[in-house]
Design brief:
This protein is α/β, with parallel strands linked by helices. The chain contains 18 helices and 16 strands. The protein folds into 2 domains: 151 residues, 2-Layer Sandwich (Alpha-Beta Plaits); 254 residues, EAL domain (TIM Barrel, Alpha-Beta Barrel), CATH 3.20.20. Helices cover 54% and strands 20% of the residues.
Amino acid sequence: MTQDNEKSLQDQFLELKERLMVSEQYYQSLFSYINDFVYSIEDKLAELANFDHDTGLPNRMRLTRQLENMLKVAKAKDRQLAVLSIDMDRFKMINDSLGHFAGDIILKELAYRIEKVLPGGAYIGRFGGDKFTVILSKEVRIEEVMKTCKPILEEIAKSIIFDDHEYFITASIGVSFYPNDGRDVHILLKNADVAGNRSKAQGGNRITFFSTEMNEQVSSRLEMESYLRRAIQKGEFYLMFQPLIDLHTGRVFGSEALIRWNHPSLGTIPPADFIPLAEETGLIKEIGSWVLKQACRQNKEWHLLGHEDLSVAVNVSAYQFQQPGFLDDVKNALAEADLEPKYLTLELTESTMLHNVEYSISVMKALQDFGVKVSIDDFGTGYSSLSYLKNLPINTLKIDRSFINNLRIDTFDVAIVKAIITMGQGLEVKVLAEGVETKEQMDLLKELNCHYAQGFYIHKPLTSADFEEGLHTK
């Protein structure tokens, strides 16, 4: 081999070696990039699996694991823990009116407010929706827990500015303690939630500590809810009808339809025991629709029997009234029964109408335009004020029975009832007194020029058959 050929081969070898070194560096760099990318994805997945996207707080899964770890330490060192369930009151109204995007921004602000007032040793997470959970591991005594909870409620209650508007939110807090209220993660979380729901049921913006008695009440409530759902399916409801009379003529001009529940084993369950539960669970919409249809159908049957001027009044819950399809439900009930709208009166409480005044007035006007009458029930017990009353499209005021119970010549109730009747006359609406139980009350109402009355003195609620029989004897 010549010297030139040897040099050429050496150059080629060096060039090949250099290329291999570059390739090795390239692949090392490539593998390093891939590894970094994989690790980045793994970190991101771990973050998504353990932290809430909106608030950055630990999520339910991570919080549960943390509580498990803290419980192990507490058991080993014979220490107490407190679990706080913090639930925003009526936050659904924020989401419904502003949208979920705005709701998420507001929740992020609320999370920050809670976190900044927590003591050392506290652990906070977002449990889901508008609910946060806090675990306290230091100074776990009732007095100290109260000192922690109060600033949380105060911070949440401060005004929130969003889109140049001011909003106010409150929260309900439920507290459970380890070991008194449970020795297991899920029991402690459940019991804190139970206590929080009790806070909500009592109006919100308060703190409630769990008790075994409370848990029993919740179990009873869940059982009642189950019964209530089956009652709709099995047809256990029926209607009673209380006569309404014209005080000037003494004539029965209509009835108020009242729902009753005949449970196969518990017997008759009073409305006061199941209507609030039906409203809370949303079952009132289905139950209310059934009452409306049954009442219209029964009133039409009495028309066909010759009592053509008879009307029927039906109570409407706040939840039912605020549903978007409520007006259609009323129209469908009347159409199915072939009953003219003027023979139906819907009774609404003041609180129902004031829940959303503008919307309520629009629905009431639509009902009246269709021919249905509107009545304010339990008048005088809510927010009675001429400033809003004069704007409400109503046909009747029903004086609450609490003013009629003590209606005697020498009582202040006479002045109150007289004022309500005078107010009704000024507004050109009829006035009906409910809860009339004595002849003295009846005579006084006549003297005061009250239009209508109902109550046990006139007649207790009757089955449809007994009511019909009474119509035949008139």
